[in-house]
Amino acid sequence: MTEASPPPAEESIFSVDTLLKYMGNDDKALGIVSKIVRDACAPRMTPFEQAGAALREQRLHDAGKIFHSLRGSIGTLGAKRLVSASLKLEKAIAEQQIDAIPALFAALESEYQLVLRDADAWLQRNTSPGA
Fold first, then answer.
1. pLDDT tens by residue, 64-87
2. CA proximity to 101, closest of 43, 58, 50
3. Model-level pTM?
4. What domain range is 42 assigned to?
């Protein structure tokens, strides 16, 4: 078995190691990546509140756009599990699989909460007190 692609169970919740590496893996890169993480996580649960309202109001296209945007911004943080969960939900929305949406929404929301938890912990470990 190769180490190039981990099994799905080992997909990451949050990892900015690759991003740091590509940016030079120095103090400047750490500052930039810290800002990216803070900015990406700043909306907290607002996207889910907005998408939940859109789904309740049967504005499926709007909900899909919200999840697509969330996937784009949070996906840069190495959140492979979130990306996978979002793609499943986006597909169900696009195909109007109404019965599948609530469970997929809950799964994505759970993954997002894990990303926020891990991102917050990473920021606490990697941000100087004066930043």
1. 999 999 999 999 899 999 999 999
2. 58
3. 0.86
4. 13-126
